[in-house]
Every structure is written in structure tokens, then in C-alpha cells.
Amino acid sequence: MTTEDPSLLASRLSVFPRLGLASLPTPLEPMRRLTAHLGGPRLWVKREDGTGLGFGGNKLRKLDYVLHEAIAAKADVLVSGGVVQSNSQRQVAAAAAKLGMECHLAVYHGRLAPPTPEYATSGNALLNRLFGAHFHDVPWTGNRNAAIEELGGRLREEGRRPYFVPYGVSNPLGAIAYASTIVEIAEQSRALGVRPAAIVHCTGSAGTQAGLVVGASLAMPETRIVGIDIDAEPERVRSDVVACARGAADLIGARFDESDVEVVAGHAGPAYGVPHAATIEAIKLAGALEALALDPVYSGKGLAGLIALIRARRWQPDMDVIFVHTGGAPALFAYQGVLGI
Ligand SMILES: *Cc1c(COP(=O)(O)O)cnc(C)c1O
After folding, report:
1. Interatomic CA distance for residues 184 and 260, integer angstroms
2. Catalytic annotation, pick one of 80, 86, 122, 180
3. Could you tell me the domains of the chain?
4. pTM of the predicted protein model
């Protein structure tokens, strides 16, 4: 059996410059009480919610690389699209504040009906204001890209140099950035004497899963990457992950096998951004047993999917499975009224 060796992946990643916005490495911690509650496998959590800047989350790792490109291009304004409670936009706004850049957010309205009165103003929306972002309302239905282009055009007319952050910071460079998580997990697992059977996480705009898949192909070939669809569009998500991973594999010189992309359907609830009973159960378990703050849009659904796979006996009790906590806790406050606590 091969042992995990992250050195090849680490050296391939080292040629990509990064800004150092995220606090890395993030910890890999045991979830002993959740493991006991579910009766195994042994569960671990990779704390990507703990990347630091502006409440942290999985987008900071991608922004570290992608915004290096923005700065190299002498951009002075960041432009980003996302829904009202987007964690991605909040991390872009935080990075812009830290870097001394202006941040313009195209805020998509109408992807979901606001589930609570606090949805519009609390959580990420509050933090975006705190970090000094500028807001532009854009309808979800219609040509969102054209609206962002127009916003960029207006900024250019004012003599600014805008940089467009891709949706969810998910492009091949963002995926390369996320492959750095695999270097950390491989090193941490080796130090702990753990050989993870799987790494499970929630998947949305594709960059996270693409990075994990490409990284694992080089450094953890025996570990399965399992993405839990939270968009209620598993086919679309899977094809986005395949495209993004292919681009990332080309950039980093890895082989890419489509069969390595697994997107699990059935745990997204009725729609994106709408938590259902299993999501709320997962959030409460993680809080009560592990003092983890999961969110109702992403990580809560991700853990709901992992719990369902465990209950379906996907893994043996003596195996090790890592859950990636991708962040999103600020959205809890925007959904307070639907949590029933
Ligand atoms: C964006 C996000 C994800 C999904 O990551 P993608 O790279 O968009 O697939 C998961 N969890 C949280 C909390 C997020 O904000």
C-alpha cells in the first residue's frame, strides 16, 4: 500500500503565487462525540471555517491565489456576484478591505424567497456593510453576467480598474488553490496515523470539489472525495466540477479521471438556501456534540448528507472519514427564525 505523500503536490502548488490572506494550515480535529452518537466510522473535521479573515470560510484559500492575479493586473476594485447571504461575497468584501481595494457586490435577488425577516439584513449582509462593500441589486432571473459587465463598464468609465471575481471564486486557479487543503490533510493524517477512506464536503460552485479531487489524485489516491449537492441540481453541479477539475488538472499537470467526481444527490432539501428537517438536525447535533457552528445553506446540508451515508452503512466503524467544515456560520444569524432553537 502506498502512503500519502504530499511533497509532489506541494511542489507543483509552490509555483503559483499567493497573497497569504488565509490563516493556514487549518486544524484537523477528531469528532469523538458525534462518532459515538452515530456508532462510527471515526469522524474528523477539517476546520476550513477557521481560515481567519472576516469570519473565515473556504473561499479565502481560493482568494489567496485568485486575488494575486487581480493585484498583478493592477486592479483597484473587486466586483463579485452572489445572493444576499453569500459567504463568498462576504469573504471577497473582507479581502478587499484588508487589501485596501474597493468592493462592488452584485447582489442577486429572487433565487429564493427570504426565509426570515432577518435574512435581508443580518449575517453576511451585516458583515458586508461592516467591511465597507458597495451594493448593486440584480435580479436572479435574467442575464446576471450582462449586469455585472455593465457594472464593470461603469467603473471603467470612472477611471477604475475592476477585477471580476468568478462566482464562488470557482475557476481552475481557485481549484488549484483548494488543492492545498489536500497537502494539509495528507500531512495531518500522516502525523495522526490515520488513513482516511473519504473526505466529505458540501459542493456548490464546484471549485472546492475540483481542487480536492485534483489534489487527492496526486497526494491521497486512496481517499475518495464525496461532494454533497446543496444546490438541488446534482447533474449541473457534477458537470461543473468535471469541467473545473479538468482545467485545474491541466494547470497543475495532474491526470484527471471523471470517475473520481462523485456528487451525492438527495440532501439539498427543497431548494438552494432552504433548510429542511435533516439540515436542522445536523446543525443541532454538530452544535450540541462538537461545538461546531454549521450553517443552513451549505455545511448543515453537507453534514446531513454525511449522516445519511453513515446510516446507510457506506463505511465500516473502524474506518476514518473527514468532514470538511467549509464555513458559513454567519448565515446562522440570518436564519435564526427557522432553526427552532
Ligand atoms: C461556497 C461554499 C461552499 C461550496 O464551495 P464551492 O467551491 O462553491 O463548491 C460550501 N460551504 C460554504 C459554507 C460555502 O460558502
Report:
1. 20
2. 86
3. 7-56+171-339 (3.40.50.1100), 59-168 (3.40.50.1100)
4. 0.97
